[in-house]
Amino acid sequence: MKLCLRCGVTFERVDWHCPGCGHEPPRIAGFPAFAPELAHGTDGYDPAFYAEFARVEAGNFWFRARNRLIVWALGRYFPEARRLLEVGCGTGYVLAGIAAAFPGAAVTGSEAAVDGLAFAARRVPQAALIQADARRIPFRHEFDVAAAFDVIEHIADDRGVLQALREVVRPGGGLLLTVPQHPFLWSEFDARAHHARRYRAAELRTKVSQAGFEIIRMTSFVTLLLPFMFLSRLTQRAPEADYNPLAEFRIASWLNWSLEKVLSFERALIRSGIPLPAGGSLLLVARRQES
Q1: The CATH number of the domain where 150 resides is what?
Q2: Structure pTM?
Q3: Segments in the chain forming alpha helices (H)
């Protein structure tokens, strides 16, 4: 069901014209805009990064490995899912990977900044894309799975986002999250990426449970690279005027290949059921509780 954010009426229509109050959201850059005040820049992310992200994602070991882990988790825990929403879809790299792996699924993406949606529209032309605040998503009980990949750490009110994600999935529907882990890894990278926090596993577990989800699986990843991450972050403690958080994604091809192999081995461990207790990131799989 679609939800009118102005009057609260839920409805089923192809368009967004509310049958209750007659409101229809404006379109910005061709996308239905439900939070126009955020469309050209947010306090959670720098829209200028989208073009550069779109250039590096497909070839970088971390993005590639995370995509494979996400696709595996979706197929393993929600094989019957036919309708999926990704909140904070950015340039559409993950959404494109999901659409390719599950061609029968209807995929929807939301993003606060229209800069990201323009790239996503080219990458995933079959996706339904909207501009929206992650805390106010204009759907109710519409999706089999809702997902946010390295998104909620950007938003001060992460509890509000988790509650919104609960509302958009049907009872019994699924949740997939990835977030950066370990506050001790905080560095200039996090500050420049507009992170509000890095998570402890217990914190994420508590917040997701309190939002009305039952956690099915939670594991760290980027575990074997954690010592190298820590050493790298130590060099980024002091602010640098010319620091670019995307610079660490530009690495030599041989190193990129080697690190991707390491993360492929990690994924094999996760698939076999071995829990990884520490790592640069967390993957969480949960299901909406019926009540």
Answers
A1: 3.40.50.150
A2: 0.93
A3: 49-56, 61-77, 93-101, 114-123, 158-168, 188-192, 201-210, 226-234, 253-271
In 10 A of CB 274, how many CB atoms?
10
Question: To which residue do tokens 């990977």 refer?
Answer: 97
Dist. CA 182–CA 281, nearest whole Å: 8
At 286, which helix (H) or strand (E)?
strand 281-288
Residue 183 φ/ψ region, left for φ over 0, alpha for ψ in the -120 to 50 degree band, beta for the rest: alpha
Structure-block tokens of residue 172: 């019994």
In this structure, what token pair is assigned to residue 277? 């207790």
For the chain, how many residues are written? Answer: 291
**Res 200: pLDDT:** 97
CA atoms of 4 and 25, how far apart (whole Å): 9
Closest CA to 179 of 205, 215, 144, 210: 205
Residues of the chain with pLDDT under 50: none
d(C-alpha 169, C-alpha 176), whole Å: 12
Residue in 196, 204, 237, 207 with CA at minimum distance from that of residue 220: 204
Torsion angle, alpha carbons of 94, 32, 128, 162, to 10? 50
- In the prediction, which pLDDT does 251 show? 86
Which sign does the torsion angle of CA 200, 269, 67, 127 carry? negative
Cα Rg of the chain, angstroms: 19
Which structural domain range is residue 84 located in?
2-288
Structural domains in the chain (count)? 1
Q: Coil, strand, or helix at residue 41?
A: coil
Residues paired with residue 288 on neighbouring β-strands, in sequence order: 213
For tokens 């946010």, name the residue. Answer: 148
**How far is residue 221's CA from residue 259's CA, in Å, rounded to a whole number?**
13
Q: Which tokens hold the place of 243?
A: 């620091």
For 108, the 3-state DSSP assignment is strand
Determine the Cα–Cα distance for residues 26 and 29; give it in Å rounded to an integer: 10
